[in-house]
Amino acid sequence: MNKIARLAMAGIASVGLVATMNSAATAAPTAASVVAGPAGAQDWGGGWSDVRDVSIREKPSTTSRKVGTLKKGKIVKCWVAGCSAVDGGNYKCTSSSPTENRWHEVNWGGKKRYAATRCLEWGRVE
C-alpha cells in the first residue's frame, strides 16, 4: 500500500474516533437535570458525576468554604466558554485515588465557584 493510501485510511479512522468521542460526551448528561445559576452559564459545557456527590467550593481548595453539593446525576455548568480550570489545593476523589490539584471554574448560583476536576466528568451539556 502506498503512502497516500495509508494516510487516507488514517484520516478516515481519525474522523470516526472524533465522532464517537463527541457522541459519548454529548449523550451522557442529557438525562440529568441542571444545577446552575441563571445568566452567564455556558450551555455547551459542564460537569457531572454518576458515582457520588461532589462539593462545590468558594475557592479552589478543600480548606475553602463549601458553598454547595452537586448531587450524583446532576449537572453544573462551566463558568466560561472552554470550561477553564486552575491549579489549587490538593484533594483526592476517593481514599484510593491519586492526589490531584486541578479545579474547574463553575457557575453555582450565578457566582464563580470551584469543583474538583478529577471528581467529575466534563463535556458538552445542553
Describe this structure in words.
The protein is an alpha+beta fold and 126 residues long. It is 20% helix and 32% strand. It is built from one helix and eight strands. It has a five-stranded antiparallel sheet, with no helix packed on it. A three-stranded antiparallel sheet has the order 4-1-8, with no helix packed on it. The chain is globular. The protein starts with a helix and ends with a strand. 28% of the residues are buried. About 25% of the residues have low confidence.
Percent helix: 10-25%
Q: Output the helix-strand order.
A: HEEEEEEEE
Low-confidence stretches: 12-42
Q: What's the total count of β strands? A: 8
Secondary structure category: alpha+beta
Tell me, briefly, the overall form.
globular
* Main sheet attributes: strand count, strand direction, barrel closure: 5 strands, antiparallel
Overall pLDDT score: 77
